[in-house]
Hints:
- The chain is α+β, with helices and mostly antiparallel strands.
- The chain folds into three domains: about 1-115, PriA, 3(prime) DNA-binding domain (GIY-YIG endonuclease); about 125-200, Arc Repressor Mutant, subunit A (Orthogonal Bundle), CATH 1.10.10; about 220-325, Rossmann fold.
- The chain has ten helices and eleven strands.
- It has helices spanning about 90-105, 110-115, 120, 145-155, 165-175, 180-185, 220-230, 250-260, 275-285, 300-310; strands at about 10-20, 30-35, 45-50, 55-65, 80, 125-135, 165, 190-200, 265-270, 290-295, 320.
- The strands form three sheets. The chain has a five-stranded antiparallel beta sheet.
- α4 (about 145-155) crosses α5 and α7 (about 220-230) packs parallel to α8 (about 250-260).
- The longest helix has 14 residues, at about 250-260.
Amino acid sequence: MALLFPEETNAGYARIAVERGFDRYPDGLTYVVPEELGDLVTGERVLVPLGRGGTPTPGYVIDRSDSPGSQDAERLKWILRRDGSAHGLPPELMSLALWVARYYQAPLGLTVSAMLPSAVRRGVGAVKRRLIDLAETPEHSGSITAKQRSVLDAIEALPSDQRPVELNRLKQLSGVRTTGPVDRLLRDGLLVEHRRTEIEAEWRTPSPGELTPDTPTSLQQGVIDAIGAELGNGFSTHLLHGVTGAGKTEVYIRLIERVLAQGGMALVLVPEIALTPQTGARLIGRFPDHRVAVLHSGLTAAQRHQQWAMAAAGEADIVLGARSAVFA
C-alpha cells in the first residue's frame, strides 16, 4: 500500500545494497524509510521490493538521509521490513565493504554478503526466548486463579538478579503445564514480557593447552618489547621470521597479553583450519578469564553463527580463525 500513497509519513531515505549481482548501481539503491523503521542504522539487514514485480529482496543499509538527493521521491519504493531472521553487518565494517567493492569493482550487495558467513545470513541456530518479569506498576485489580497466583509467587520469590526469567523455567518453578496462566497475567498487566534472540549450538571447548609459560629467551623478550612499544601508536606491521619451534607463538601470546591489559581485543589468523584446535586450546589455557571466539569452515553452521555473533557483539576478547575471520 505504501507504493500507492507516497505522501504517507516517512522517516527519511536510505541507500540499500541489495544482494544481487548487478553493477548499474554501485552506490546502492535509494528507498523510502517507513516511520515505524525510523531507528534503522547502518549495516542492518532489510527486505526491499526489487524490479517491476517488487520481489522482496534482502539488502543492507548503507546510510540514511533526510533527502532523496537527485531521485524523484514519488517514484521511490519503500522498505518492506527488517529481516529479523539474520544479523546485519556491523556498522564499522560497512565502510570497509564500500572500499572493497570499489577497489575490486564488485557489486556492493554481494560484497557485503560475502563478508557475512552463510550461517549468519540464514540465521542458523537462532531461537527467540520469552523472558518474564513482574510489572513495575501493576494495574489489574480483579481476581486471579490459583495457577496465576502460583506463577506470581514463583517469580516474586526469585532474586532480582535472576529476573526476568525464561518462560519455560517459570512454568517449572510455578508447577503450571501450559502458558495460559502466564499469558493471562501478561494481558492483565501484572507481568511484562521481553523477547531476546539467542543462538544455540553444541560447543565443545578445546582442552586447555600449556598453562604455565616458559620464561622468554632474551631474543624473544627483545622482540616482545620492541613490538609492544608500538601497540599504542596506531597501525604498524612487523615481520617475525623464525623456523618451526623457534618460539614465535609465545611471542604472539605475550603481545596479546599486553593488548588485553590495555583493554583491547586480539585477532589471531592461522593459515589453515587444521591449526585452530591446538592454537585455540593454547589460547584458552593461557587466557582462562577471557572469552575466545573460534571461527573456521570446520564448524557446524550453528556453531559458526554463535561464534561470529559473539565476536560481532564485542563479547570476545580474542578471535581465532582462518582468513575469513578478519571480517568478524
